[in-house]
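ligand=zinc ion
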Amino acid sequence: MCVFCEIIKGNIPSAKVYEDDDVLAILDISQVTFGHTLVMPKKHCANILEADEETVLKCAAVAKKLAKQIVENTKATGVNVLTNCGESAGQTVDHLHFHIIPRYDENDAITIKFNPSKEQDLGQVLKVVKGE
Ligand code: AMP
Ligand code: ZN
C-alpha cells in the first residue's frame, strides 16, 4: 500500500491540517517552507492525469481554502499551489496530492524559475498540443 494510503488509514502518523469524508490535508514532513501542506484524496489515485474530475475538484477546493488560511495564519507573502505528475516532474509519491507551499521571501528554501529556452514556432506547438 502507498505511504499516503497508510497515512489515510492511520497506520502511519501525520499532522492533520484538515479532514472530511473525501479529502485529507497534512503537514509535509519536509517543511520546505514553514507551513508546507499536502492535500490528497482519501481514494487512491496515482496523479492528476489518472484521477477522475470530481476527485481533482474536491482536492482543489480544499487546497484553495487552505492556501488562504495558511497564508493568513503564517503571514506568508505568497504561496505556490502545485501538483507534480510523473517522475520527470518530480513526483515521488504516486498518490495524487497538491502541495501548498507558503512563500516568505526570495531566499526561502524553494526556487521555481521559468528559464528561457529555445524559441519555438507557436503555431507548430499549438498543433501538437491540440492533437491536430
Ligand atoms: P512529490 O515529490 O510531489 O511526490 O511530493 C511528495 C511529498 O511527500 C514530499 O514533499 C515528501 O516530503 C512528502 N512526504 C513523504 N512521506 C511523508 C510522510 N510520511 N508524511 C508527510 N509527508 C511526507
Ligand atoms: Zn495511495
